[in-house]
Design brief:
Order of helices and strands of chain A: HHEHHEHHHH
Order of helices and strands of chain B: HEEHHHHHHHHHHHHH
Number of strands of chain B: 2
Helix content of chain B: 55-70%
Strand content of chain B: under 5%
Mean pLDDT of chain B: 92
Low-confidence stretches of chain A: none
Radius of gyration of chain B: 19 Å
Strand order of the largest sheet of chain A: 1-2
Oligomer: heterodimer
Number of domains of chain A: 1
Largest sheet of chain B: 2 strands, antiparallel
Shape of chain A: globular
Number of strands of chain A: 2
Largest interface: A-B, 20 and 20 residues
Number of domains of chain B: 1
Strand order of the largest sheet of chain B: 1-2
Number of helices of chain B: 14
Distance between the termini of chain A: 28 Å
Shape of chain B: globular
Strand content of chain A: 5-15%
Radius of gyration of chain A: 16 Å
Mean pLDDT of chain A: 89
Low-confidence stretches of chain B: none
Structural class of chain A: mainly alpha
Chain lengths: ~190, ~300
């Protein structure tokens, strides 16, 4: 699945933004770096954490949504993973694509993007993530940003900030998948 | 261990249903009531599932004993004059009204009165036809075949028209679609009595079910989770994880009921629990009956 045109379009949108808030501008910069990483199939470079405990597959499924997103972000950025349960790539390959679909059914691109990054980190076979990636690409609007927010009651400023966040989340996920596709080798858990 | 747990919860659930039989009355006084007829029909369906001959091991004695009581209850209600005449008075509702009888007919029961009604309807060009969704058409053809009133269903044609056969994106499914999928597997496998010959098809269906199990488990949707696990048992396929089985077993209440919040109506505990409890009984039966198929794929160490 070629995400290149979507990423290029998102870059165009990020470039066009006039962001007076420093944090928003920093997020835009991260988005552009992730887009570049996606094009070069390089690992997304974000401030990392040294070690994170990997929850079990069952814990990940039954976590509250916000806790899940936080946990996924720590896993995706960690240098090393610790796991108390036996780590089984086959279990992750059964659970993570299905969990992506589950959150896609809830129309939740942030949760899906978070899970896609974890799947890439745990070396899940990229083909198993096709539906999740398709869902993410379908969240793109005509201006290149991600997030179908037309029905949102938020103010323009809040909506822009939300679009920015979703766009960066999706670009991060697409970069993680591109790097996984570009890397040779089979699926084995990195724990 | 888990099989014993399901033997225990299944027995408790079946006893709960028996204790609630009065709530399965098909008529409200002498009036037809769609909601009550639905409950009565579902009881008859589960009754037939438990008691019809199957190629697998016989069901548990405890479940069969409760099912025998349900069968008596259903048969008595079917033979009440008000019910019998209701079918002839409202031919437009012939199929839903005859559905419970057709279920019992598949177990060997015969009612000359209802058989005569079926014959009249057929001779009038009303062979229980309705405009039906594909999976409901599948159900009707299977029910009539099992009742000995029609030729064997055109399995492949019926299957190919369903969402299960056609859907390529699971993220597009809504809850009604997933119920269509579970019911399609019920009928395609004839509730575990028919082995699917197409291995590639079975593999794909199992993969769809396994994915949907994760969603229902995440949302603690016990009704759909139990239906999906039941489907995998009917196909003799394991789940990828054991935890959904544990979650389903733990969801049964001590009194045997298995509530699913979706069915709650105005605080009516029976309405909230009866359907999921019936599914729970079938799930327990499938766990106990098909002993040689593992419930899930063990973790590789």
């Amino acid at each position: 699945m070629d995400a290149g045109p979507a990423v290029a379009s998102a870059c165009g949108w990020l470039d066009s933004l006039d962001l007076p808030d420093e944090r928003d501008d920093a997020l835009r910069t991260i988005g552009l770096q992730l887009a570049a990483a996606q094009r070069r199939r390089e690992p997304p470079r974000l401030p990392g954490v040294a070690t994170t405990t990997l929850p079990s597959a069952a814990e990940l499924v039954t976590m509250e949504r916000d806790e899940l997103v936080g946990s996924c972000n720590r896993i995706a950025r960690s240098q090393a993973l610790e796991s108390s349960a036996p780590c089984d790539a086959q279990r992750w390959e059964a659970v993570l694509p299905a969990l992506c679909i589950s959150y896609a059914r809830d129309a939740d691109p942030v949760a899906v993007a978070s899970l896609v990054r974890v799947a890439a980190r745990l070396r899940v076979e990229p083909a198993l993530l096709d539906e999740a990636v398709s869902f993410l690409l379908e969240q793109q609007t005509d201006d290149g940003s991600f997030g179908l927010l037309a029905d949102s009651a938020q103010s323009d400023g809040s909506r822009l900030r939300q679009s920015l966040r979703i766009t960066v989340e999706v670009l991060w996920a697409l970069a993680a998948v591109a790097e996984r596709v570009g890397r040779s080798g089979g699926s084995s858990c990195p724990c | 261990m888990l099989r014993q747990t399901f033997a225990d919860v299944g027995t408790r659930a079946a006893a709960w249903v028996t204790g609630q039989l009065a709530r399965f009355e098909p008529l409200a006084g002498n009036e037809l009531d769609g909601r009550q007829l639905k409950r009565f029909s579902e009881l008859a369906f589960v009754c037939a599932c438990l008691t019809r001959p199957a190629p697998s091991a016989p069901g548990s004695a405890a479940l069969l004993s409760e099912a025998a009581r349900w069968q008596d209850f259903v048969r008595d209600r079917l033979e009440e004059p008000t019910y019998r005449e209701a079918v002839r008075k409202t031919p437009a509702l012939a199929y839903p009204l005859l559905f419970p009888y057709l279920q019992l007919r598949a177990t060997g029961y015969r009612s000359p009165y209802h058989d005569a009604t079926v014959e009249r309807l057929a001779s009038c060009g009303h062979p229980l036809v309705e405009e039906l969704l594909p999976y409901r058409r599948f159900e009707r053809d299977l029910v009539l075949w099992n009742a000995g009133l029609a030729a064997e269903p055109a399995w492949d044609d019926l299957y190919e028209a369903t969402i299960l056969a056609r859907a390529r994106r699971l993220s597009f499914l809504d809850i009604g679609d997933v119920y269509s999928i579970t019911h399609t597997v019920f009928y395609l496998s004839d509730m575990g009595r028919r082995r699917l010959e197409d291995d590639a098809r079975t593999e794909r269906i199992a993969s769809v079910l396994d994915s949907l199990v994760i969603h229902s488990w995440r949302l603690a949707d016990w009704d759909l989770l139990c239906e999906l696990l039941l489907c995998l048992r009917l196909l003799s396929r394991p789940t990828a994880l054991g935890e959904p089985w544990c979650a389903a077993a733990a969801a049964f209440h001590q009194d045997g009921s298995l509530p699913s919040d979706r069915w709650a109506r105005g605080g009516d505990a029976f309405a909230a629990a009866y359907h999921t409890t019936l599914v729970g009984v079938l799930l327990a039966d499938s766990v106990l009956r098909v002993r040689d198929a593992p419930l899930w794929t063990p973790v590789r160490q």
